[in-house]
Design brief:
alpha/beta; two-stranded antiparallel ribbon; 8 helices
Length: 305
């Protein structure tokens, strides 16, 4: 290590100069051999300039450098299958195939950029957007893809969502019965139906794992005497209902029918089904709202009193 002595040492006689240089050399050799820590101007810490301890490179954003993403808004139930730090989604295989087949649909609203800082927003437009944001107290974000609303992300649950199933089922009760009794009764009866469907090869979504068909529709259960129904065997109830749905309302492919499937495919009623016409509407004519004249109506603003 090169040591430069002060200028005042130049006037010291030779013997004293040698002693001073020797002492300075010994002190320099005892200093700890640690690398120097460089700090940027105006900062007192160099932690930001050091590489990460893990040795992995820092994660870079997919957005342009000047684009500022918005924060992710995830409810507690959605946060169980979508990571808040990077928007990674864990969902069903069916939903994953759908998102891969439609790349313009994005589940992660955290990739949206603030409109004033988006890639294609010029400086004058960005200033106008910032002025509006401060004046109206709003925030504007933009994405070139169709982003799913944060409150609709619950439909992407990896366990499946009730409205995503092919078979819908709901129950109602009549009379002044206890809510606890009829809730427990309808739950046991519907569970018995789906258990028997599962025994026949159907999953919770109404489809067969072997591709032998599917059941699509809605089952409505109305309880007249919940207390009486609760005392009866629920397995018998589920077996009868599941057998009717499987034999008469399951849609099977032609290959399954050729192998001697138990069902005959969709019934004639399902094949010839047409939407019901509204009352008072003739074919080729639309029913007009009440009070509308035969002539072309023109909207006029309401007169102030």
């Amino acid at each position: 290590m090169a040591v430069t002595a002060p200028r005042a040492a130049a006037v010291v006689p030779g013997a004293c100069c040698v002693q001073l240089l020797g002492g300075a050399t010994r002190r320099a050799s005892t200093l700890p051999a640690k690398p120097l820590r460089y700090q940027s101007d105006g900062s007192s810490s160099s932690s930001s300039s050091r590489p990460p301890r893990s040795g992995r490179p820092a994660k870079t954003s997919a957005l342009p450098p000047r684009a500022a993403p918005v924060a992710r808004i995830l409810s507690p139930d959605v946060a169980k299958f979508i990571r808040s730090r990077d928007g990674h989604l864990t969902t069903t295989p069916e939903t994953a195939r759908f998102l891969r087949a439609h790349p313009t649909i994005d589940h992660d609203h955290g990739t949206m950029a603030r409109l004033e800082a988006a890639a294609h927003t010029p400086a004058d437009a960005a200033a106008a957007i910032r002025r509006l944001s401060q004046q109206y107290g709003v925030r504007l974000a933009w994405s070139p893809r169709h982003v799913i609303h944060p409150h609709r992300l619950r439909f992407l649950d990896p366990r499946g969502h009730p409205l995503a199933a092919r078979v819908w089922a709901f129950a109602t009760a009549t009379g002044g019965v206890s809510a606890v009794v009829w809730q427990l009764t309808k739950r046991e009866l519907l569970r018995a139906v789906f258990r028997r469907l599962a025994a026949r090869g159907y999953d919770e979504h109404g489809g067969r794992a072997d591709g032998g068909g599917e059941i699509r529709g809605t089952l409505w259960l109305t309880l007249w005497r919940p207390q009486h129904a609760r005392r009866l065997p629920v397995d018998e109830f589920g077996e009868v209902v599941a057998d009717v749905l499987d034999r008469h309302y399951a849609v099977r492919p032609a290959s399954a029918e050729g192998r001697g499937g138990s069902a005959e495919g969709p019934t004639d009623e399902m094949k010839n089904w047409k939407p019901r016409e509204r009352s008072g509407v003739r074919e080729g004519d639309m029913r007009r709202p009440a009070g509308e004249a035969d002539g072309q109506s023109t909207w006029q603003p309401r007169k102030s009193k």
